[in-house]
Write a structure and sequence with these properties.
Order of helices and strands: EHHEHEHEEEHEHEH
Radius of gyration: 19 Å
Strand order of the largest sheet: 1-2-3-4
Largest sheet: 4 strands, parallel
Oligomer: single chain
Length: about 220
């Protein structure tokens, strides 16, 4: 079970997720889960690296440990939703910080790295094997479209000259291009998150009318 935490404190986390109180609520929830988890359930923290939090990756490792978690997922951005180069940190710099994190916690905490081409972490390939799980993982979108995660992301990767002799080329697929990423029709827009207090469906995970707007947009695109 992975908890998404994208900053070492309330301010940085809120800057990534847009909800001021999210950090305190998440940390409190992690504490309950650590205290009550049954035997055999592994708990961990997931951080998606952005320009706004990459410099705090070392502090995130400290936070993960202090919360009683012994597993950390470091996730690099992919061409998905609104993930663009304006949000993504420099890949080489982020990879160097990730190497430092792995070295700092070697033997004490499991570190998995997701969505990073193998060539950025030579000698650390064992930490990149979590991507292999995507081969058997499917996603279901709100428009009921089901796709295989590995196939979906492979379509958004571009092999380059350096990929030719790479032993991981058959699986890796190359580099993600974040310059021109079309927004999928199921993406929740900011206006969809506005829920008046009198709305009886304000506590639902999918905002009222959202599914109808998605169907209308899909119909317009098809036409």
């Amino acid at each position: 079970l992975l908890f998404s935490v994208h900053g070492p404190d309330a301010k940085i986390h809120a800057q990534q997720v847009g909800v001021a109180e999210a950090f305190e609520q998440t940390v409190e929830g992690i504490g309950h889960c650590v205290r009550l988890r049954p035997r055999g359930v592994e708990l961990g923290m997931n951080i998606t690296l952005t320009k706004g939090n990459v410099a705090h990756l070392a502090a995130m490792g400290e936070l993960c440990w202090s919360l009683g978690l012994r597993w950390m997922n470091v996730q690099f951005l992919t061409p998905f939703g609104r993930a663009t180069r304006y949000v993504a940190p420099d890949t080489a710099d982020a990879a160097a910080r990730t190497r430092a994190l792995i070295d700092a916690w070697a033997g004490r905490m499991k570190i998995q790295v997701i969505n990073l081409p193998y060539c950025f972490l030579p000698g650390y390939e064992e930490h990149l094997q979590g991507d292999l799980a995507k081969l058997s993982r499917h996603m279901v979108f709100v428009n009921n479209e089901t796709v295989n995660l590995a196939e979906y992301l492979a379509q958004r990767r571009t092999p380059k000259a350096v990929c030719g002799p790479c032993p991981h080329a058959s699986f890796c697929g190359g580099f993600y291009e974040l310059d021109d990423v079309p927004e999928p029709p199921w993406l929740i827009a900011p206006e969809d998150l506005h829920r008046p207090l009198h709305d009886p469906r304000r506590h639902e995970s999918v905002p009222a009318g959202f599914s109808e707007r998605v169907r209308a947009r899909l119909a317009d695109d098809a036409g």
